[in-house]
Amino acid sequence: MEFKKRKTEENGDANSPPSSIDAAVIPPALTSDDIRKILQPFTQEQLLDLLQSASLQHPDILDAVRSVADRDTTRRKLFVRGLSGETTTETLRTVFSSYGDLDEAIVIFDKATGRSKGYGFVVYRHVDGAVLALKEPSKKIDGRMTVTQLAAAGSTGGDVSSRKVFVGNVPFEVSAESLLSEFSKYGEIEEGPLGFDKASGKTRGFAFFVYKTEEGAKNSVAESMKTVDGHQVICKFAVDNKKPKPVGQNPSGFPVDNSNVNYHPPNPTMMPPQYGAPPNSYVQQPYGNQVPAAGGYGPGPVPHYGGPVAGPGPVPGPRGPQTAVGGYPDGSQYGYPQQPMPVQRPPPGGMYQPYY
């Protein structure tokens, strides 16, 4: 009996309640640092997926995300180009307010003439308004397709030569709406018609369209003659008139040569480049080299009074120094009298000096 009693005391009474050790243990709540440690190994893509899902399901999380994003104004400010001269600030506000609350909407006008410059700006109160507006970058406003982009992006149109179409022989009475209606048949238009007079809002005899795809542009020029409001117009790809500058020519188009400038050894009596002289004029130099005078500003070369001349050509007489054509005397004691060549000929190719 003594043994059984001792056993019962050690193991506890069978009718006694279970000890606290057997009860379910409630863990302490996680702190923000604990959550950060859990999230730290996640990739950016995993975090974006989690936050995206949470923002859609919980409005308070969406508000928190929005409040951070709204601090950056560049993400809420849009630039709108291709506007008609008739489009007002009120029209711009009406169009873009459908995507969200606005802080500002304005069409830019020329202060001198009071005419629209053809572009404007829109600032949304929340970044999500700008995101929704940019889903449709091309918007039809007052009969024209306009282009919307983030203002901070600057001019990011890129090369549109393969998508840009020129329309000629457009009568003044043809409206932008009529042109847009006709050329929209061939593909989705990104921007246009462009080229209308900003004061009158009428065509100046031509217009441009930029299609969203090359295919649309090709379809539109497949038949060059089209009829708009009973008038025949012609269309073709708009070609950039800028041509590459020929090798060996300076920006002014005049060929120059100073390939031998660096050939001579240092010499204090060497003639410096002559500023102010007309293009393609030549000056006799020692060593039999000819260096063209570059156009520009400043005094021309002036010979030393009574001094000998090292190169070919006459020595200045008692009348005084000869002044280089196009230059101004400054009393300098270096250089040689200028000998214009009777016949101009382009020098051999080589390095060239800037022409101003």
Automatic annotation (TrEMBL):
GO terms for cellular component: nucleus; ribonucleoprotein complex. Residues 339-349 have a biased composition (Pro residues). Residues 1-24, 292-356 are annotated as: Disordered. Pfam families: RRM_1. Residues 76-153, 163-243 form the RRM domain. Residues 1-10 have a biased composition (Basic and acidic residues). One of its GO terms (molecular function) is mRNA binding. Keywords: Ribonucleoprotein, RNA-binding. This is Heterogeneous nuclear ribonucleoprotein.
